[in-house]
Specification:
3-stranded antiparallel β-sheet; about 55% helix
């Protein structure tokens, strides 16, 4: 959500005169709009002012700015892929929730990678798959994917072409490879979501649209830790396979995609309880967290979770698992004051559709790999290495 400041507040924030502020507006550095109820008064976008002040501080004191830059929520680089604003998520200007209901995974991948829905560039690229016995059954999806990606990369000579179109084609090969790893089959359908549906739950009607929506809603989320990691690796001009391996390593963490496993375990425990609200309240009394509620970027609620839960209700209203999940969501919201997140919704999808264990994280990883490739394309084009400086706080040099 954009915070708007008056001209007095804006000029004071920047430490400049109003004349200088107006000059910044005329140069396109700061957005301005009419104040509600008074078209003669102008207001100024706080995030633009913050960005502008940050640049000025960088010139004056690079060390101080570097210290602030990596704190959560402070923008540190520009991207034209994803916007989070007013409790909505947009991919290149398109509402992600609308895309989840109207477009295919292939089209959204093309949008994030090329800026258009054109999928023709994928038609001629050879796909990589793995046979059912090639991946270790005992390992979770992320571990299997991290093992397989480097092996395939060695034999993909096209992966070292870092021009945008070539990276998009490599990205499509990677996405299909990951799908093959997820279902442990070399038999792919015409779409990513189609492969998952046929190999996981072929007899479940309407599952295809739910799986498609989940993948699209997970495709990108601005500069989260895995996407930032992916960009760092891309900035070193590592190939896209290495970018995705790095993204998977970051995403698996308990404070990122791994949160879905915490939600899954919590729901398993709650399923054995006769009174869900009391069980959640007991968790709070014991000092335990109620996982899967509240996202700081969405004060009014995560729109991705809201859409997935609504779609489940639309198609699987009689599902006992969905009824249970809804009861947990209602009780959790009452006790925390927060709404469910995408992590909660992905587990709800997995339980309602009766997907294999760990599928919530698999869906998250498959979807987010689209965003990592998009960020890699953007970073390759930027052609600058990401190299923050460290503020030394250790023992002073001797002598």
């Amino acid at each position: 959500m954009v915070t708007w400041l008056s001209s007095k507040e804006a000029s004071s924030f920047l430490g400049v005169s109003r004349t200088t502020l107006y000059a910044y507006v005329s140069r396109g550095l700061v957005r301005s709009s009419a104040s509600p109820g008074n078209s003669h008064l102008r207001r100024y976008a706080g995030e633009d002012l913050e960005r502008l002040r940050g640049r000025r501080e960088l010139r004056r004191d690079p060390g101080k700015t570097a210290e602030r830059a990596l704190h959560w929520g402070v923008p540190i680089m520009e991207s034209s892929i994803t916007l989070i604003e007013s409790d909505r998520l947009y991919y290149r200007g398109h509402d992600a929730c609308e895309l989840a209901e109207t477009r295919s995974v292939e089209e959204v991948a093309a949008l994030l990678w090329t800026g258009a829905f054109e999928t023709d560039l994928f038609a001629s690229t050879p796909l990589h798959v793995v046979a059912g016995g090639e991946s270790a059954d005992a390992l979770p999806f992320v571990s299997r994917a991290q093992s397989m990606l480097p092996l395939v990369a060695v034999h993909d000579s096209l992966a070292f072409d870092l021009r945008p179109r070539a990276v998009a084609q490599t990205g499509w090969r990677i996405l299909n490879l990951l799908t093959s790893v997820a279902v442990e089959s070399s038999d792919l359908e015409d779409s990513i979501e189609g492969t998952l549906q046929k190999r996981w739950i072929p007899r479940t009607a309407h599952a295809l649209e739910i799986l498609r929506a989940a993948l699209i809603l997970c495709a990108d989320h601005e500069l989260n830790v895995s996407s930032f990691t992916a960009r760092c690796v891309a900035s070193a001009q590592s190939n896209p396979y290495a970018v995705v391996v790095a993204g998977l390593a970051a995403m698996e963490g308990a404070r990122h995609g791994g949160m879905s496993e915490k939600v899954e375990t919590m729901l398993d425990e709650l399923r054995r309880s006769r009174d869900v609200r009391k069980a959640l309240s007991d968790r709070q009394r014991r000092g335990e967290l109620i996982h899967g509620f509240g996202h700081r970027l969405y004060p009014a609620g995560d729109p991705r979770a809201a859409l997935l839960l609504e779609m489940l209700g639309r198609r699987f209203a009689k599902s006992p698992e969905l009824t249970f999940v809804r009861n947990v969501a209602k009780a959790g919201e009452e006790l925390t004051g927060d709404k469910p997140t995408i992590d909660f919704a992905l587990v709800a999808v997995a339980r309602t559709l009766k997907l294999p264990r760990g599928s919530a994280l698999t869906l998250f990883a498959l979807g987010r790999s689209i965003g990592w490739i998009g960020h890699a394309i953007e970073q390759y084009a930027n052609d600058e290495i990401i190299r923050p400086r460290a503020k030394y706080v250790g023992e002073a040099p001797k002598g």
